[in-house]
Design goal:
A two-stranded antiparallel ribbon has the order 1-2. It has five helices and four strands.
Length: 136
């Protein structure tokens, strides 16, 4: 795995990782990336004031910032949302938004209906999923 990070001064950092990738190692790598130059901007909408964002967009932002590579639950997102934005959001609203994102292929969904776990889909997994749907 290779990660390139550009800081605000235009410096480029390249981090190469070889071996088995575990959750702990991936989180350490993300910590290093954040220290060097922060996470990539991703969606330019996230750069505008969060007060202008809809609740749905705020939930997407929480997932991008807090759960980029790990499995999470609706309750995890609810907690992170309320901590980040200092405003309440109901668990049913979060669950509905996560379910819609999973239906759209933005999130992977796993588990039983009363304990769904979600994970952000990478571009590679999204393209694999698209090709599998096309072959049916």
């Amino acid at each position: 795995m290779r990660v390139e990070v550009f800081d605000g001064s235009g410096n480029r950092y390249t981090i190469t990782f070889q071996g088995q990738v575990t959750r702990e190692k991936a989180l350490r790598l993300l910590d290093i990336v954040e220290l060097l130059g922060g996470m990539p901007a991703g969606n330019p909408e996230w750069n505008r004031a969060t007060s202008d964002l809809s609740k749905f967009d705020k939930v997407r932002l929480i997932i991008d910032r807090s759960f980029p590579m790990v499995w999470f639950s609706s309750r995890d997102v609810q907690s992170a949302y309320e901590q980040e934005f200092k405003e309440p959001i109901s668990l049913s609203t979060v669950s509905t938004y996560l379910s819609r994102m999973a239906d759209r292929g933005v999130l992977a969904k796993n588990g039983m209906s009363n304990s769904w776990r979600y994970r952000a889909m990478t571009k590679i997994s999204q393209s694999t999923l698209s090709s599998m749907k096309g072959n049916k």
